[in-house]
Amino acid sequence: MSKKQKKILVLAGAFALAFGIVPNVSAMHIMEGYLPGSFCIAWGVLCVPFLIAGFMSIKKTLNEHRNLITMLAMSGAFIFVISSLKIPSVTGSCSHMTGTGLGAILFGPAAVSILGLIVLLFQAILLAHGGLTTLGANTFSMAIAGPFVSYGIYVLCKKMNVNKRVAVFLAAALGDLFTYCVTAGQLALAHNADTTFGAALGKFMAIFAPTQVPLAIIEGIITVVIFMGLETYAKPELRAMGILKEAK
Amino acid sequence: MKKTVIAAIVVIFLIAFVPLFVLKDAEFGGSDDAGSVVVEEVDSSYEPWATPVFEQLLGGELPGEVESLLFCIQTGIGVGIIAFIMGRFVERKKWMKDQ
């Protein structure tokens, strides 16, 4: 193990210990029935243009490069796996990651909204996790807001000539974190009858954010590992998508 | 590169499992309940107006073991697809080198 790797290990350990003192509980998707009807519809409607854009973007990509369907399946499967793993976090409760960063980097944020929707539907119907009435709100936070932030950060990093792996890490981790900030915002918007919007937002953020920070870091690392694998074994696809430059 | 990957995996495990050992009394409970608790706190008059489809069919809560089974199926489907495609990519690279 090199010095740098040792340093990372120590840092991660210290980080986990430092956060290990705050016992709390957390939430992931918005539960079934926990948003008033009007909010459910509003979020749902807000998602529609993104989903249409996503559908068209996927169609266009596949028309141009038929063989990219493997990569698309892979991004979808990645979201499937990552969002099914509930991981104990430093706040003393479990939460899971979103896994949308990879797809957003590879196919653009719009395409991911479709993949995310599929996963959320599966979880809402079969796992009683999230819900059909809150599907719109959950889709917006996990499959639209998060991926757009991921993609934005990735593009920004690329413009600033940041190392590609660092860019992937930041994009995936911050996209994950942002998803949960949006969820907190959505809950606070709907539920602030007894306090103000700000106070409610603070309360929801307090449950979501600390739990999610270490998970966001894990998600960043996993995404980088997968990305490294793809860089080695899927060069033709990455070139076709413009992620790698032509003929190095 | 191999070393980086191994180090990355070790870090992931550390972040994931250190809290389990440090926080011995914590419940690591499901997250959905906690969200509902806060909703109650800031909006006490609110009543959830729908329950998950599956729970309606069952007429009660999904048993914990069955829920973990379903989550495993989800993971399994995903891992299967990733492993299959990654396997193809790896083999293809070997084959391309021979050419």
UniProtKB/TrEMBL annotation, chain A:
Pfam families: CbiM. Its main location: membrane. It is found in: Cell membrane. Pathway: Cofactor biosynthesis; adenosylcobalamin biosynthesis. InterPro entries: CbiM (IPR018024), CbiM/NikMN (IPR002751). The keyword Transmembrane helix applies. Signal peptide: none annotated. Keywords: Cell membrane, Cobalamin biosynthesis, Cobalt, Cobalt transport, Ion transport, Membrane, Signal, Transmembrane, Transmembrane helix, Transport. It comes from the Bacteria. The chain crosses the membrane at residues 37-56, 68-85, 105-128, 135-154, 166-189, 201-230. It is a multi-pass membrane protein. Belongs to the CbiM family. Part of the energy-coupling factor (ECF) transporter complex CbiMNOQ involved in cobalt import. Forms an energy-coupling factor (ECF) transporter complex composed of an ATP-binding protein (A component, CbiO), a transmembrane protein (T component, CbiQ) and 2 possible substrate-capture proteins (S components, CbiM and CbiN) of unknown stoichimetry. This is Cobalt transport protein CbiM. The gene is cbiM.
From TrEMBL, chain B:
The chain crosses the membrane at residues 5-23, 68-90. It is a multi-pass membrane protein. The keyword Lipid biosynthesis does not apply. Keywords: Cell membrane, Cobalamin biosynthesis, Cobalt, Cobalt transport, Ion transport, Membrane, Transmembrane, Transmembrane helix, Transport. The keyword Transmembrane applies. It is found in: Cell membrane. Pathway: Cofactor biosynthesis; adenosylcobalamin biosynthesis. It comes from the Bacteria. Belongs to the CbiN family. Forms an energy-coupling factor (ECF) transporter complex composed of an ATP-binding protein (A component, CbiO), a transmembrane protein (T component, CbiQ) and 2 possible substrate-capture proteins (S components, CbiM and CbiN) of unknown stoichimetry. Part of the energy-coupling factor (ECF) transporter complex CbiMNOQ involved in cobalt import. This is Cobalt transport protein CbiN.
